[in-house]
Amino acid sequence: MTVRYLIYLAAQEIPVDKELYYKFDRHRGYRSHAQTMRDIMCTALGVQLSKIDLSYGHIQKINTMIELTLEKERSKRGISKRETVRQLVSEQLSEVN
Question: Which of 14, 19, 71, 74 has a CA 20 to 30 Å removed from the CA of 63?
Fold first, then answer.
């Protein structure tokens, strides 16, 4: 099995299989890897962003909101953070495709 990596945050790579990686890449289109991950995670976790949050310079605030919500989801599922991210991305891309 070929392993590819989704970059969740700087220096945090999530290993995924080739099929999930290609689904992510098709969904990504011309957007950056980081922006696509933020979009997927916000949607999957139900994080609501205001127009101000989406403006330039609020990336750290968005990442903090995602991290807090992700930690709650991780503890609910009882699995590691990496596995939670992998599952959320997989679930979200399955719904989109």
Answer: 19
